[in-house]
Give the backbone structure.
Amino acid sequence: MEKPSPKKVRPGPKPLPAEVLTERQQRRLVERKEDGAAFRAEREAAGLTRAAVADACGVGESTVRAWETGRAGVPPSARKFVENTISQKKNGEA
């Protein structure tokens, strides 16, 4: 029996060098990375795994990772879920 051929992985788009981005685009990129890092800190403070957040938000773990690294913006629904979990823990509900 023949072995299946290995799956070919296409490389994603290369990030643009900073000199190609406008000042506004650079500022927005930094803001998104900072927002993602804050979201990760909140998630960890809530004792949640990426898998738990992904499951609650109906997305994959790779999407949550993209939020945390700033490759994608954190949606308000995800932030609200983490905030509610923290609130429940403080109130002794969880």
In short: The chain has a mean pLDDT of 87.
